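Lab notes, practical 5.
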Amino acid sequence: MLTALQRIALLTDLSSFEEVGAPVDGVRTDCAITGIGMVDGRRVAIIATDRWVQSGSISEQAARKIAALLKKAQTVRIPVIALWESPGARIQEGVVGMHAIAEMFRQFAEISGVVPTIAVLLGTNSGATAYSAALMDFCIMVEQQSHTFITGPKVVEQVLGEQVSMAALGGSEQHGRETGLATIVAASESEAISSARRLLRYLPQHFSDITLTPPQLIRKKSSPEAMMELLPDGEDKCGYDMLRIIEAIVDDDSFLELQAEYAPNLITGFACMGNMVTGIIANQPMCMSGILDIKASRKIARFVQICDAYSIPLIFLADSPGFMPGREQEQQGMVSVGAAVLSALVQARVPKITVIIHKLIGGAYAGMNCKGMGADAVFAWPCAKVAVVGKEAAARVIFHKEIQQSDDPETSRIALLEDYAQQHLHPYVAAEHGQIDAVIHPDETRGILMKTLTLLQQKAERPTARRTGIQPWR
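Output from the prediction step:
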């Protein structure tokens, strides 16, 4: 494991870090190292906790240094990257230390949506630094090394009599797959820090910065793969990998997937298209047919807020049978979480474009950014199906009596469903009503998206100055 200064050196450009609040006599009495450094030529505020000073516990002095740096970052509008490893508050300081830590929390909340913030968890973090990481926009963890929780296993055992390992309580797998806190899970410290550098390349200096240049001006080395070949044969076209379609649309090697292990039935990430950075939200048919459950809904709402906060346009690649039904989902709050998706879409003022790849049924029609929710443009492939319900649901709900009373139920069922598909399931009905702008050939998708993004770059609905608060992951 690296020291705090080694971690800073790995993050920043050579010899660019200048410490703020360095000890005059060279002897550190608090764990916080704060300062300004260059990352890929961009000025960034940097926080690192030193586990060799009082085990990395956050003292009053450390909390005040961190809060002061956050204020400075907000004033001069530069991103913040924090390299965390701390057991939390320094207990012996009591309420004085708690007050300073509360001020630190307030500054993290105040800076939300003003400048991008990235937390890199490089060891065990509890209490003060666990909350601080959760208040930041992105959180990177290291496999089998990073842990974060409010209280550790010893306290849990003392209070509840429950024995639990650090990994089960708050390890990288827990936060990568179950809670969604981990945006990226890296294999090592160096990979985690490298991931922070790469992630920053897709983000502006601050919320009103319109000068962001994509990290790699990589155009397509060759013409996009024939898109229809990426879909399997057959009417249902189940089980294809949406990641292949994303890679065929965006610039080569530019897609950075976020929260890959959390809600794998939905894909989110950043990509480049020509000279534009975009946010990608896509259903993944290979997992649960791309259905929207509670986790996927939280993932959408959070990512939409982040992109809206930093003026990053959104592209939706839709193929979903709807929202997940069932008692478990309802009891966990599917209605309110689904509503959070709708609210995030309506409030977002960045350009929002949808391409319906195969199917968009029921509530997913709204949840994946339709014209009625404020989409700027909606396109569909010819094989797309758009309806309130699919054919099988129609058989159970709409045609149940007709099929049951028929002399030949199976023949009637086939005929009725074929008629239903002809009238309702193709994209041309929606196009006739203006709900779809155009039915496009799949191979035209990249070109049409780039033209539309260029047209929407000066979208008038986007305020010239705004601030969107990004809520902690729910």
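Observations recorded by the TA: The chain has two domains: 4-200, 227-384+426-456. The first strand starts at residue 18 and ends at 20.
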